[in-house]
Amino acid sequence: MNTAQTSLLGKQRWKLWEPLFWLAALALPLVLGGHSLIVNEIAIVALFAISLDLILGYAGIVSLGHAAFFGMGAYSAALFAKHVMPDPLVGLAFAIAVSTLLGAICSLTIMRGTDLTRLMVTMGVAMILMELANKLDFTGGADGLQGVVMGPLLGTFEFDLYGRTAAWYSLSVLIVFFALARRLVHSPFGGTLMALRDNRLRAMAIGIPVTARLAVIYTIAAGVAGAAGALLAQTTSFASVDVFEFHRSADLMLLVVIGGTGWLYGGVIGAVIFKLMQDWISSITPQYWTFWIGLFLVVLMLVGRERLIRPWTWFGGKKS
Fold first, then answer.
1. Per-residue pLDDT reduced to its tens digit, 98-110
2. Whole-structure pTM over 0.85, yes or no?
3. Positive/negative CA dihedral, 263, 56, 58, 304
4. In a domain, 22, yes or no
5. What is the DSSP letter of 145?
6. Three-class secondary structure of residue 208 per DSSP
């Protein structure tokens, strides 16, 4: 076994602190029962952030329209629950399939051009979908899709007003997708993604099928984003055009920057920091909370993220 294979096997192994981290996360709805709703929001945003990190941090694909897949997942799950069947897991699978299909189609648009071109194209897709959701009758238009009723999870656990079931559901889906994404980025496929991210021309020169790799990871990331959108619609029993808006993609980019790209835990940490800051600051100053988050980002860039998260790296939380 060569050095590269040994390194990959080492990265694939779960470190001792990782299972403890996720067990602690699963215990949060029980320990913080009154704050289960914010735990649910953080889990959904963290899953959304992981989907962006797969294309931005590992493949170097810049996107400001990732909300297109998030919104498609939300509307697919809501429409499925309203018109087909209310089972959450079946609806989740349907939303993932629809978002993945959309990602496969949209992957054709990011093969050519510069990063600026990709930014414009991805934004355009999200704007088109938002306008369709606003105009079509079966989506509810500007009022959103109402009357969505979700069935009990696994036929037993009802979604309550306190959000405890919703939080456990979202956390469980987050853990499953995190484990799959972790396996993916620490595989030979993930290694080729990082190679083309660092130098696309060199990757092409050594025989890596760049176009196929970009299409595959973009499609996978779309499915993960769709899962996050489905969780939002299912746990709130509502879907509106807001899921496609630009601010959702922009906020996602901010929290990925906060946590760090090219490191799956960066999306999780960024989601925790961003949502807690948003909740706390907006409760103090609802009009100016974006100013303080902007100031935090400026300080983060000046001081350096590595200094702020250094205690985390002591426990093995290093970037891939």
1. 999 999 998 888 7
2. yes
3. negative
4. no
5. B
6. coil
